[in-house]
Specification:
The protein has about 325 residues and is α/β, with parallel strands linked by helices. The protein contains nine helices and 14 strands. β13 and β14 (about 300-310) form a beta hairpin. Bound molecules: adenosine-2'-5'-diphosphate.
């Protein structure tokens, strides 16, 4: 693998620091120069990576253009991506962006490496990492689509507070000390909020629309998608209950076999022994855990399953690093 000059934008954040953790583990990715960017308030901070100290720099045009950067992993919010990603891209750098800023743009591939790597062949130096809860649903749906042709899907999510960044984690801790939330509209401890992102006029939330639109783009199908996204009081790992309808009749053994053998999936489906996916299993791993797979009792063309993954790793940082690996 060739040596690369790599920038991390948002290096001090939850996902940014996980980019570094994942890259520490994947030491076969050879980095010649590493540049760490964050906001002005973090400039000068020291971060250790592969036993070497790096100074965090303020993200600004001059600091970007003064360097030769091959790849940039971005996770500093949509506004920062909109302002700076094109500056990197025009300077011959390939940006892998974790925000929602460019995901639905026609020229921007939206990638889950196990599902649609072929879309990486054509890009204009900006590649988007999908929404965290969407990413983990794509491999199981693709495995089943290959066999039975997906027609319709209903997602019900149970999403960890770390999906809101440090602000979400802090609110959960605050509430556990019997203090009020500062970020969420209600307490999250001992509660569930059917409210992730702003509400739109039709009653869906922004998060639900991300799952709907991104699923169609990644699977490259105009299928019907419905989503209800719920924030739950756990720190890490999103869980999703998926109900899917197909053109062909389901053979449940074939379905389970396809899920078991799909790249990136760990199949945990032995209900007699209480084996099924849970956040405590998925935490700190890069796998998508799939279980509770069963046919709809009233529709031979439909099934249900339960899917869990670490939202900061597979749902964000690891998926982006896997995209980088594919590009290399
Ligand atoms: P900083 O720590 O200096 O605020 P999280 O999602 O965990 O809150 O992390 C967000 C990341 O994005 C942090 O690294 C944060 O840096 C960075 N960030 C936020 N705003 C900007 C900005 N305007 N320019 C560069 N980095 C930013």
């Amino acid at each position: 693998m060739k040596m690369i000059n790599l920038a991390i934008v948002g290096a001090t954040g939850l996902v940014g620091s996980t980019f570094l953790k994942v890259l520490e583990e994947k030491n076969y990715i050879k980095i010649k120069n590493l540049y760490l960017f964050a906001s002005q308030k973090s400039a000068g901070k020291i971060i250790t990576f592969r036993n070497k100290n790096y100074v965090v720099e303020e993200l600004n045009t001059q600091n970007i253009l003064s360097k030769k950067i091959d790849f940039a992993l971005f996770s500093a919010g949509g506004e920062t991506s909109k302002k700076y990603a094109q500056i990197f891209a025009k300077n011959s750098c390939v940006v892998i962006d974790n925000s929602s800023a460019f995901r639905m743009e026609k020229d921007v591939p939206l990638i889950v490496p196990q599902v649609n790597p072929e879309k990486l062949l054509k890009h204009k130096n900006i590649i988007a990492n999908p929404n965290c809860s969407t990413i983990q649903c794509m491999a199981p749906l693709k495995a089943l689509d290959n066999l039975f042709e997906l027609k319709e899907v209903v997602f019900s999510t149970y999403q960890a507070v770390s999906g809101s960044g440090v602000k979400g984690l802090e609110d959960l801790k605050r509430n556990m000390r019997e203090e009020k939330s500062l970020f969420y509209p209600y307490q999250i401890y001992e509660n569930c909020l059917p409210h992730i992102g702003d509400f739109l006029d039709d009653g869906n939330t922004i998060e639900e629309m991300k799952m709907i639109n991104e699923t169609q783009k990644i699977l490259n199908k105009k299928i019907r998608v419905n989503a209800t996204c719920v924030r739950v009081p756990i720190s890490f790992c999103h869980s999703v209950s998926i109900y899917a309808k197909f053109k062909k009749e389901i053979d449940i053994n074939l379905a389970k076999n396809a899920l078991q053998n799909f790249d990136g999936i760990t199949f945990l489906d032995d209900t007699k022994n209480c084996v099924y996916p849970m956040p405590i299993i998925a935490k700190n791993t890069d796998s998508v855990y799939v279980g509770r797979v069963r046919k709809d009792l009233f529709n031979k063309h439909a099934l249900s399953m339960f899917v869990v993954a670490d939202n900061i790793r597979k749902g964000a940082a690891s998926n982006a690093v896997e995209i980088l690996e594919k590009l290399l």
